[in-house]
Amino acid sequence: MGDPDFRLLFESAPGLYLVLRPDAPRYTIVAVSDAYARATMTQRERILGRGLFEIFPDNPADPEASGVRNLSASLGRAISTGASDAMAVQKYDVRRPQEQGGGFEARWWSPVNSPVFDGEGTLVYLIHRVEDVTEFVRLTQRGIEQEKTTAELRTRSASMEVEIFQRAQELQQVNEHLRSANAEVSRLYEKTRELDRLKTQLFANVSHELRTPLTLILGPARRLLQQAPDAALRQDLEVIERNARLLLHHVEDLLDIARLEEKKATPAYTELNAAALARRVASHFDVVAQDLDIRWCVELPESLDAQLDPQMLQRVLFNLLSNAFKFSPAASRVRLSLRPCGDALLFEVADSGPGIPIAWRDAVFERFRQLQADANQRRSGTGLGLSIAREFVRLMGGRITIADAPEGGALFSVELPRRVPAGVAVTPAAVEPAMAELADGDARIEALRAASPPPALPTQGQGPLVLVVEDNAAMSALICRCLSSEWRVATAFDGAQGLQQALALRPDLVLTDIMMPGVSGEQLLKELRQRREFDDMPVVVLSARADDELRVKLLREGAQDYLVKPFAVEELRARVGTLLSRAQALVALRHSKEYWRELFAQASDGILIGNVECSEVVDANAAACALLGRRHEDVVGSNPLDWLVSARRDALAEFSAELHAGGTLTRVWTVRRSDGGFRHLDVTAKLLHDGRCLALLRDATQRHQREQAAQALTDELERRVELRTEQLRRLAAELEAAENRERRQIARDLHDDLGQLLAAARIRLAPLCRDAHDEVREAAVAIAELVEQANRSTRSLAAQLAPAVLYELGLQPALEWLAEEVWLRFGLIVNIADDGAPKPLSQEARSIVYRAVRELLINVAKHAGVNSATVSLLREGRQLTVHVSDAGVGFAAKGRDAGRGSGVGLASVRERLSYIGGSLEVHSVPDDGTRATLHLALDARQD
Prior knowledge:
Elements (H helix, E strand, L loop, with lengths): L5 H7 L3 E5 L8 E4 L1 H6 L4 H4 L4 H4 L11 H15 L3 E2 L3 E2 L2 E2 L8 E2 L2 E10 L5 E10 L1 H94 L3 H31 L8 E4 H10 L2 H6 L3 E5 L5 E4 L1 H17 L6 E9 L2 E8 L33 H11 L3 E6 L5 E8 L19 H13 L15 E5 L3 H11 L4 E5 L2 H11 L3 E5 L7 H9 L9 E5 L4 H9 L4 E4 L4 H22 L2 H10 L3 E5 L6 E4 L1 H7 L3 H4 L13 H12 L4 E8 L5 E10 L5 E7 L1 H71 L2 H28 L2 H5 L2 H16 L2 E6 L8 H22 L3 E9 L2 E8 L17 H12 L3 E6 L5 E8 L6
Parallel strand pairs: 10-12, 16-17, 16-18, 18-19, 19-20, 26-27
Antiparallel strand pairs: 1-2, 1-8, 3-7, 4-7, 5-6, 7-8, 9-11, 12-13, 13-15, 14-15, 21-22, 21-25, 23-24, 24-25, 27-28, 28-30, 29-30
Helix pairs in contact: 1-18, 6-7, 6-22, 7-12, 8-10, 10-11, 10-12, 14-15, 22-23, 25-26, 26-27
């Protein structure tokens, strides 16, 4: 038999192992066992070659998370001391995969970090071994929480008065804070106005300051462009000139915003042919439409005179058309039309693109606002074009609106008056209106023409392949020229093309921009990292956003580097070269057989390899020999029966049979050491591909002791909680009985004392009602009626508190009386159905049942939406059953069992019934009524 495959042995080991490089603070992951990947919900192919804390960050939702800090400190100690470092139990949440809901899951671990040295004593690896102790920690916490609940019950009633006083004090403080906040809001409002003014001034200053250096760039660039004989030099100069003109256009936009903000922009009206001006603007887009495969439709009359500002009108039309072409896909349609509309002109710019949602039709005119689906998916531009267009239209007395176009996309309608108001100066018509504004517009038109370069296949040659994913054609060309001198280069326009190119070409490195139309660079990164074949491929992110939060996020999601534009060409080449070399070295290292042999030998957990029958140990590492307390030569070749305590040969045979049946087995072994001592071991075993068995050994003595202590604590806490619960229930029953007695006493006092006083008042009033003068007699009669009403209310209140009929005649007559009261108060007809059988109940039971039925009938009257209900009393053996039913609207269970209550009222009914051993069930169906059923035992002493 050949040497064992140590890589397979390590990955198949049942223990939770992670092998790291000592390259602090990154700690690159170079190996992981299957058991560790399962426990942490990761996949080996997706985490190898990446940093430890990139894969396992702290839970961002837990402000007290300290797993990263503690683990980093332990790894540092293992490196500095050269010895294993055991950590205390750590709370270190793990990230759930997206297919399992995402987020983090709370976990507790018991980690050990061990250094691994080569033959020359050099530290080469760190072995991170953990034990999942989540269930034990949760068991312990449950016991602590139960004791806390008992203590809270004792102090709750005493703290209520203190809490009420504190709430009053807090309310007073809130009022003070509110007054201070109102003053602060006023101050901030004034500060905001001042900041707006300073912002406008900044725009104006920056715009003026940038125009001078841009002029100095454009002038020499144009002169050199006319003189340059070399084609490559001309290409570079054209890029400089085109981008300088585009930057000048953005500067003009900022300057226009500043002028509009300061109310300094005013129209210069001229007699002009609006149709001819619109035709000249439209002619600039003929080539764009051809390059982008867009059907370009211009519907203009031969002539249409108007009094307008030609420069403002040109800017409005150009901005609207640029926006339409920018967001229209290939094979779509763009239309420009003009027609008279009464005393006004109506321009329409329509397209068949994605359109603009109704909720966004006002927002798109806001400054710097761009309609995007995601922060990392964008089109070029500053978000000022539509805002400037709307302001220019308003200055000329018109309005601009957005609607759904007949073509299927967005329709921008611009309505402008043909004549200026009386008294406004108008310049006579010029032979050819100036078109200076469109000179800078040419740069934007060229940008539109180059917006969608086709993907390029790899350049010729040998060596690593780099895929460049960049939506800007000039930037893509610059990067390709930078890299093609050393590596083969292929290109893609956006994330979708990038993924297609990656699948087809299998590049050695991907270099991608973040903000691109369609599929962003961040989405491309996620797609690549979800495919195992790209796990070893480095990804470099290019971005114009110097955002530390975004950089950290992308590095955690699998990017190897993050480079901010503008960047140095030499730096880009250096970073790409380093990542390519590292990736190639990692692949070579992963296939090193000696690498796996070293891991097996120095693993901190014990590992045994047995023969097919599990009757002989064929190999063992140093940790296994230490746990068994035997030398390596004594362990290898031995039968487990030689050192297992109380082991039967048939039990070991059963273990072998179960192992060969498939799966992973976990057992607790008690072993006899060579020194005569005993040790409990957790043994996890599984079969290797060649039929031999692999067993992981771990000392379980302390854990078993902790589990026994925790179980004893839990049993004691449960006993205390049950005892305290019973005490509380008895106290509640006593309070209920005392309440019934008090209610009867109050009812008796109302009936006897107040009732007699009212009767005496009525007797005294009788002579006045009969013999007094008319005015006195009328007043006496009115007072007598009031006294009679008070007398009836007193009797009704006394009866509701403790109806005498309930205690003197029994439950059924009391319910008849209750039915009459419900009819008089709510207009609800209550039918009482009694089977006629005797129903002996104690006074306490009668009172609780009566109050329960009254509560249920009031619920029916208020919420059921019916005019009748039924109360049925049935004797079933030694049990009384009371049904309260209606045919009303019912209610939905909302996730609860149908027999459970739906509010505080039903909960109190169920609680009172429990005092006398009764129960309450409620069955309700929406639009089909509700049926409440009370069950309680009859009083055997009265039967």
